[in-house]
Amino acid sequence: MGIVLKKKIDEETLLGIWEIAETEQYFKDNLNLNQGELAFLKNVTFDQRRLQWLGSRLMLRKLIEELCDEVSESTHIQLEVNQNGKPLLKFPDYNSSISHSRKMAAVVISKSKLVGVDIEIIEDKIERIAHKFLNQKEHEDIENSNHGSDANRGMLYVYWCVKESIYKSVGQKGLIFGEDIILNNFYYSDNGGEVIIRVSDTNQSSRLFNAYYQKLEDYMLVYSGEL
After folding, report:
1. Which residues of 104-143 are buried (b: 16+ CB within 10 A; e: fewer)?
2. Could you say which DSSP state residue 130 is in?
3. Within 10 Å of residue 88's Cβ, how many Cβ atoms?
4. How far apart are CA 164 and CA 120, in angstroms?
5. Of 21-25, 52-56, 140-144, which gets the smallest average pLDDT?
6. 103 and 35, same structural domain?
7. How many CB atoms lie within 10 A of CB 213?
8. Is residue 20's pLDDT more than 80?
């Protein structure tokens, strides 16, 4: 399928979604992978996981080629992972975030600000794990929203995806979803919307982020950035 969504967030930030329907060979033919990356792929035994890795890397490359004049088809995009699991672009030196769920791979990059992205397929199981990422007030806000079961499920996914995207953008272990990543009250809509988030880090300081959510087929997509 290829790119199903590409969005210019601002002059220095791009978002892209790749719907994976291609073969592994297609991605390898269109990516300038080095020997280390090829060796890594050989150790990934799950077919879907390999395709997700490849699809997200090609989406990343497409965004970088659009945003960076110094990158050509022959340029190797060097992406490493730090000790907290956060992907780091070595060249070009941009902030980036990657997420994938089933057949969708989401990527956001920015020249200057911290960014995060999360995409999740919408399933009933979210209700069973809500206690892992919601605090008591957030539970009550959803229960009192009177949206109906489908909208409440969508609202749960907004909370989950927003907190995941913020966690990825900050890249700091030890953040507690229910205590350190707090969403301001918001009105949920199936048409999408914006949320403001306050993040408390381990130094007891706080930072503000905004996040945008939208439904994409059977998926919830969230991308966020520091204010």
Report:
1. bbbbbbbeeebbbbbbbebeeebeeebeebbbeebeebbe
2. G
3. 14
4. 10
5. 140-144
6. yes
7. 25
8. yes
Q: What is the pLDDT of residues 71-118, one digit of tens each?
A: 888 888 988 888 777 888 988 889 999 999 999 999 999 999 999 999
Of 28, 98, 88, 33, which is closest to residue 63 (Cα–Cα)?
Answer: 98
Nearest Cα neighbor of 4 from 106, 101, 116 is: 106
Same domain, 102 and 183: no
Distance CA 206, CA 227 (A): 12
Print the domain residue range for 64: 2-113
Q: How far apart are CA 88 and CA 73, in angstroms?
A: 20
Task: Say if residue 63 is in the same domain as residue 44.
Answer: yes
5 residue type, one letter: L
- Condensed to tens digits (0 to 9), the pLDDT of residues 143-176 reads 887 666 788 899 999 999 999 999 999 988 889 9
Q: For the chain, what is the domain count? A: 2
Instruction: Report the relative pairing of strands 13-19 and 193-200 from DSSP bridges.
Output: unpaired
CATH of the domain at 25: 3.90.470.20
Report d(CA 139, CA 130) in Å as an integer. Answer: 8
The encoded tokens of residue 217 equal 């087929």
Question: CA distances (Å), 217 to each of 93, 121, 221, 227, in order?
Answer: 33, 9, 10, 29
Question: In degrees, to the nearest 5, what angle opens at C-alpha 106 toward C-alphas 78 and 210?
Answer: 105
